[in-house]
Specification:
Layout (H helix, E strand, L loop, with lengths): L4 E6 L3 H13 L5 E7 L3 E3 L4 H6 L8 E3 L8 E5 L2 E5 L4 E4 L2 E4 L2 E4 L3 E3 L7 H4 L1 E2 L3 H20 L9 E5 L3 H21 L7 E6 L10 H13 L2 E5 L3 E5 L2 E6 L2 E6 L2 E4 L3 E3 L2 H5 L8 E2 L5 E2 L2 E6 L4 E2 L13 H19 L13 E5 L5 E5 L2 E4 H28 L3
Helix pairs in contact: 1-8, 1-9
Bound molecules: flavin-adenine dinucleotide.
Length: 400
Amino acid sequence: MAERKKVLVLGAGYAGLQTVAKLQKQLSEEDAQITLINKNDYHYEATWLHEASAGTLNYEDVLYPIASVLKKHVKFVKAEVTKIDRNAKKVETTNGIFDFDILVVGLGFESETFGIEGMKEHAFQIENVNTARQISRHIEDKFANYAASKTKDNKDLAILVGGAGFTGVEFLGELTDRIPELANKYGVDQSKVKITCVEAAPKMLPMFSDELVNHAVSYLEERGVEFKVGTPIVAANEKGFVVKVDDKEQQLEANTVVWAAGVRGSHLMEKSFEGVKRGRIVTKQDLTIDGYDDIFVIGDVSAFIPEGADRPLPTTAQLAMQQGEKTATNIKHILKGEPTENFTYADRGTVCSLGRHDGVGVVFGREITGKKAAFMKRVVDTRAVFKIGGLGLAYKKGKF
Ligand SMILES: Cc1cc2nc3c(=O)[nH]c(=O)nc-3n(C[C@H](O)[C@H](O)[C@H](O)COP(=O)(O)OP(=O)(O)OC[C@H]3O[C@@H](n4cnc5c(N)ncnc54)[C@H](O)[C@@H]3O)c2cc1C
């Protein structure tokens, strides 16, 4: 019997787990030795982190054990990847060194603060399950503190959000659902709560039309959110954000400060590959990288430029999952000695939630708002878990 090839998948996010989910159906134990490495023994739905951060969804509902979706012939290793040696075909981790014949890198995103002074130290980041749990607990603690204290520091009820892009707006939507619950629980006058969103660019949600943006803004403003658009944040400190207005610096104060304005690919990418920008490497059309036909780079660590286009597609879970599926197909081709296929992206649309009951989006080219958008968001979220774990997982984790 020919020696079994070693297929090593790094990261069990949308990209890595989708690769393995498809690969384990296509390949038997005799075909290849498949190993998946991830730093936690659970997968989390990164696209639900704004809910866990606001506390509208329990953090436990955002995750599930990776082992629960793996077949017996896939080996799972809980470890943090510390080094990828592409030429020696070895990956170093906190749990040993692994060699590979075919490598899939799906190490995902990290928060990007663009060098803004104090942002890493003084603002929470919506980055993973742990940071999400910290944010929701912190917000609730501040309400409890306000209710219990005699001096009543209004800053305990003030929340500053940096960024009015997709993540920032989705987080604001959840906050407008969560605040009335917290105010009620702690007997706090809701009119004293102040949520301020600061955005440097002149336009929020740049991927959407003015009509959709206006819908999102008026929905959130009606629920108490104040927007400061076209206002750069120049620093974060123990008091809040320092912003620039008419060339003068102003201090905005709050006891909860959240940065939701940027992500980059894993910092390991710069350490492991050449030509990496903000943790992302440009891939070839079949999702491998230049000079390495057996290394696939997918999801948020990749920059995929479709043929004929001049810029990479925005990194999303939708893209990561489609890339995972194509990678599984291409690995099968390589193992059979066949040529790989090029990846083509099928854009099914984007829906930005505004809490549980509203949203804005474009689905199959049509703009939608309100309850219809909120419903579509639940369909998209449920589909993501169904695609990895089938009906059983969709039943447990789906949003019905
Ligand atoms: C709040 C929020 C809302 C979003 N909403 C949407 C949306 O509505 N639609 C959409 O399409 N996209 C959305 N996105 C973007 C989407 O979440 C990402 O594009 C997607 O998660 C990328 O998938 P990935 O598999 O590449 O990486 P990730 O989901 O980041 O997964 C990477 C995995 O690798 C693991 N890992 C990282 N480093 C190491 C290491 N050194 N060693 C071992 N394991 C490691 C991580 O723990 C994780 O399990 C949203 C993002 C956020 C933050």
